[in-house]
Amino acid sequence: MVRIGIVGVGFMGMIHFYGAKKLRGAKVTAIATRNARKLAGDWSSIQGNFGPRGKKNEDLTGVARHAEIDSLLADRNVDLVDICLPTDQHADVAVAALRAGKHVLVEKSIALDVKDADRMLAAARRAGRRLLVAHVLPFFPEFAFARTAITSGKYGKLVAAHFKRIISQPTWSADIASLEKTGGPAVDLHIHDTHFIGLVCGVPKRVYARGITERGFVTYLTTHYLFDDPSVCVTCSSGAICQQGRPFVHGYEIYLEKATLLYESGTQPLTVLTADGKSHQPKLGPGDPIVAFTAELQHAAGVVRGAARPAELSGQLARDALRLCHCEAQSVLTGKAVAIG
Fold first, then answer.
1. Which of 16, 24, 138, 266 has the most CB atoms at less than 10 Å from its CB?
2. One-character DSSP codes across 2-61
3. How many Cβ atoms sit within 10 Å of the Cβ of residue 215?
4. Do 75 and 30 meet the contact criterion of CB atoms below 8 Å apart?
């Protein structure tokens, strides 16, 4: 049994808690928050841009409640520390947890700064523990299908792809809305796609991006990823730019030699167009996003037990995705292509 301690009971901490309820061979045994009302089970103040709102009387039976992080890190009934704090706090808490002998799952983004990500990876190596990063996108059925289609070669090689991820300015969370705490949309939002592109295409050699900035932070961009193979064309548009009336949207158009994959949340269900002129909509798993978080946490528990490889949750891949975001922001600010290095 992998025993999970959640640090931070905001929106993502709550979503992880709900996702963990259906785990096999793992369970939440502890939480840590300085908010006395949340420790008492009143989560009614928690809300996000998907999923349920927090309950006033959340059942915390059998869950140890810690008012301080250090107390949870000393809890012998915790094997895996699940860090769901604002991104600017990830590095220090992750390093402390690893030094305490715990495995770590940290919400994306791995950190704000690549140097902090490297510090986290080094701490994991020294401790002999796992550093996993909770990039949930590969566990959503539409993206899991796209990954298999690209990497399996079922429809031939990848020719081109365009990814899309657009939100309005977040008004439901002060932490999420804070550019300083999250790195802005070009990190906090866009990193979903840089991670997925790295997972299915590998890390590109250079990036070229144009975008919009606010107080030195990039809030919207469109990027061209430049790989060794000049015949592969991969782009992405991402940011917080649309008006409040439009809901969050993400999706892709992926062009393979023998098929085209189309998907946009809310408007275009996943559709496969094949060379014979036909199209079909694959049968996918449940659309409830909590199911994807359950799958993510189940995979993390499997890695801790030694029954699965990190792959989607790899700390190194998450670090590389952060590096991509920073290089893209640099390209926006300079107007030049930037080498990843």
1. 16
2. EEEEEE--SHHHHHHHHHHTT-SSEEEEEEE-S-HHHHTT--TT---SSSPPPPSS---T
3. 8
4. yes
pLDDT, average across residues 120-147: 98
Confidence of residue 175 (pLDDT cuts 50, 70, 90): low
DSSP notation for 53-69: PPPSS---TT-EEESSH
C-alpha pair distances (Å), 303 with each of 8, 210, 290, 315, 318: 22, 38, 20, 12, 16
The whole-angstrom separation of Cα 266 and Cα 264 is: 6
The HSE-up count of residue 293 (CA atoms within 13 Å, CB side) is 21
142: left (phi > 0), else alpha (psi -120 to 50), else beta?
alpha
Q: Is the pLDDT of residue 200 over 60?
A: yes
Which residue in the block uniquely carries the two structure tokens 């199911």? Answer: 291
The model carries a pTM of 0.94
In whole angstroms, give the CA distance from residue 137 to residue 121.
22
Peptide bond into 237 cis (omega under 30): no
Average pLDDT of the segment spanning 29-52? 93
CA distance 299 to 301: 5
Confidence of residue 79 (pLDDT cuts 50, 70, 90): very high
> What pLDDT, on the 0 to 100 scale, is given for residue 176?
52
Q: Where are the beta strands (DSSP E) in 155-297?
A: 158-168, 206-214, 217-226, 233-242, 249-256, 259-264, 268-274, 279-280
Q: What are phi and psi of 114, to 5 degrees?
A: -60, -35
Asked if residue 210 lies in contact with residue 222, where contact means CB atoms within 8 angstroms, the answer is: yes
Of 138, 191, 150, residue with least CA distance to 319: 191
For residue 266, the one-letter residue type is G
The dihedrals phi and psi of 129, each to the nearest 5 degrees, come to -125, 165
Other C-beta atoms closer than 10 Å to the C-beta of 301 total 25
